[in-house]
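Researcher: Structure prediction, please.
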Amino acid sequence: MSRLTANAATLALLPVLAVQGLHVRRSTPRLPGASGPVTGVATGDGPVFRLLVLGESTVDGVGAESHEEALTGSVAHALARRTGREVAWQAVGKTGANAAAVHDELVEFTEAADVVVIALGVNDTIELHSAPRFRRDLLRLIVALRRRLGPVPVLLAGVPPMGHFPTLPQPLRAVFGLRSAALDAAAASLAALPGVTHAPMPVALFDEDTFAADGFHPGPAGYRVWGAQLAEILAGRSR
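Model: Predicted structure follows.
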């Protein structure tokens, strides 16, 4: 039902959505990706746990100064605190990438890992990709990663519920909210596969203080909330 509702709303409001989308694109500040190394280590006393985070602008670190305080570093440091293990992390992200682009352009840059976190969905939502297409593209990405890295466990971070993005006007926000929810449900269905887990995005991430200056990406506070949630799920895998 949610997929039908999202499609119907999009078709009915397409002229309005096009105008609003153009306005948002022109008026929203364009923040750069995080600076500094895309690999690092969160210190701990236990054996090294290798973390790979792969995806769109949140993995590129938009909204943070460095990857240490963006999504990947936040997950790594929270995981090291929870487990006492040293966490060696790698961030492989591209601003503007959808699931198909990550498969085509970024998999070749991934290095050996004990777990992969995938953070995607915003660009697929904006590009009006269907839920079946998103599921298919995610599945293709998981298969490609396992061909390259072996049978690595995968954690699918939830598609951000875009109905909560403060920079989006109505009705664009409501339509993107419906569409992002449909894509998240499609991603969650992949948790039926061996070694795949889905983690819905925490509601606390959408407090006003957690957003970056563009009102679209998390800031450091948001990344810490998100990273702690993902680390809690990963902690059981790293022992």
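Model: The chain has a mean pLDDT of 89.
Researcher: Thanks, that helps.
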